[in-house]
Structure formats: structure tokens, C-alpha cells
Design a protein that fits this description.
The protein is of the alpha/beta class. 43% of the residues lie in helices and 16% in strands. Bound molecules: phosphoenolpyruvate (PEP).
């Protein structure tokens, strides 16, 4: 049985005060017995605070990206081992904003995925199509290409310790959530793709949906056979909105 995961991607939002309030509220409001694994992805400067507040609680946390290199002359970048130093379990790789704004190719994402695992982190691989790609019938081709780059570099066994997040670009931060049927269709495509390589890995793989998830749509999304939780942006920035989504897993 795959456990639901509700993961909050705070992006470049927050302040010391906001992190204290938000995290305190999430820790107190989502118990260890809730139906979901609850995880947050804060901006790097707040990782130490998150570690000090969340250590010993049910909450997990991770970095929003990492550099593929373990160390070196990469001003402004952060390595996987640095994220480990601050207690991270997870790291996002290939978020659509990294792909679109910072030009990360499928191969760049594959090298980050590999670096994450080398550092002992669980990569959360984000995949998804733009609206133009969906409207021209390219959704499956695009998503398959994003996954194939990882498979070519790391092999299917790498997905024993990884999570996939299907995030249609047209649904991120737009308020236009994919319908449960649209999301389920792509999640089933992803799981079948893995099943063709390894049934056991496919059966255990958690595939999260991301794109305007809210308390009002999460129950129906999480009820789909191949949707194992949500990667949440906007609604993870307020305690009540995020907890409302967490409760949908109960
Ligand atoms: C995201 O940032 O990954 C995301 C899904 O954002 P939102 O929930 O705001 O659409």
C-alpha cells in the first residue's frame, strides 16, 4: 500500500517570522497518525530553522534543487551533502520553474537526480507538459522523454528510492487544476511505463500530482488509483490551506 504524501514547495517565499508561524502550525496541526507523510521544501536559508523546529517530529523536509557537483567553484549553488547536513531527506529535481527559467534540460535534471541519490537524498522528479504540448497531443511523449533521461543515466532500480511528481505546467500557480481524470490518465501512463521495466518498482513508486491543489480538490485527486499525494505550491504557504489538504488524506 502506497502512503499518501503531501509536500509543500514554498518556492522563493518566506521570512523568519513566516517560517516559524507556518511550520509551527503545520507541525501542531498534522499529527504523526495522519494519513499522509507531510514534507516541506523551504528556501535554503531557512533549512537550519526547519531542522531545529521539525527534528523529532513527524515532518520531513528537503531542498528545492541541488547542484550536480559534490563541491567546487559554483558560486551560489548548493550540493547534496550540504542539504544532508541540514537533515534533508528529499530534494526536488526538474521543477518546471527550474527547467523554464534556469534552462535545465532533461540531461541536467538527470545529473541532479543522480547527485541527489549519491548524497543519500530521495529525489522528487518533477515532470509535466506545457499547454501547447498538451493541445498538440504531446503530453505522453514529453513526460516519457523526461523520465527516459533519468532511466538512461540511473536505470530503473534508481526509482526504488525516488518519487515522481506529475505537474502539468499549465496547472502550476494558475488555479486551473487538472481534472482527476486528466491527472489519473497521466499517472497511469507513468506507472505503466515503469511496470514495463519492473512491476515491483512500479507498484511501490509514489507519483504525486502538482498543480493548483487545494483543500477543495485534493480528496478527489487523492482518490484516483495512481495518485499518491500532492506537491503543493501556493496552498502550502498558509497553515489552514495546507492542513486542509493534509486532512484529505485521512
Ligand atoms: C508547485 O510549485 O510545484 C505547484 C504545484 O504550485 P501550485 O500548487 O501553486 O500550483
Amino acid at each position: 500500500m502506497r502512503r499518501i504524501m503531501v509536500a509543500g514547495n514554498w518556492k522563493m517565499h518566506g521570512s523568519l517570522e513566516m517560517v516559524e508561524t507556518l511550520l509551527g502550525g503545520v507541525i501542531n496541526g498534522s499529527g504523526p497518525d495522519s494519513g499522509a507523510d507531510v514534507v516541506v521544501f523551504p528556501p535554503f536559508p531557512y533549512l537550519q530553522l526547519v531542522q531545529s523546529m521539525a527534528s523529532g517530529t513527524h515532518l520531513g523536509w528537503g531542498g528545492q534543487t541541488l547542484n550536480p557537483e559534490p563541491k567546487g567553484a559554483h558560486t551560489g549553488e548548493v550540493s547534496g551533502s550540504m542539504l544532508k547536513d541540514f537533515g534533508c531527506t528529499y530534494v526536488l529535481v526538474g521543477h518546471s520553474e527550474r527547467r523554464a527559467i534556469y534552462g535545465e534540460s532533461n540531461e541536467d535534471v538527470a545529473s541532479r537526480f543522480e547527485a541527489a541519490q549519491s548524497a543519500g537524498l530521495v529525489p522528487v522528479l518533477c515532470v509535466g507538459e506545457t499547454i501547447e504540448q498538451r493541445e498538440t497531443g504531446l503530453t505522453e511523449e514529453v513526460v516519457a522523454g523526461q523520465i527516459d533521461a533519468i532511466l538512461a543515466r540511473s536505470g530503473v532500480s534508481a526509482f526504488e528510492q525516488a518519487i515522481v511528481a506529475y505537474e502539468p505546467v499549465w496547472a502550476i500557480g494558475t488555479g486551473h487544476t487538472a481534472s482527476p481524470e486528466q491527472a489519473q490518465a497521466v499517472h497511469a501512463f507513468i506507472r505503466n511505463k515503469f511496470a514495463a521495466l519492473d512491476d515491483t518498482i512500479a507498484g511501490r513508486l509514489r507519483i504525486l500530482y502538482g498543480g493548483s491543489v487545494k483543500g477543495s480538490n485534493a480528496t478527489e485527486l487523492f482518490a484516483q488509483a495512481d495518485i499518491d499525494g500532492g506537491l503543493v505550491g501556493g496552498a502550502s504557504l498558509t497553515v489552514e490551506d495546507f492542513l486542509a489538504i493534509c486532512r484529505c488524506a485521512d
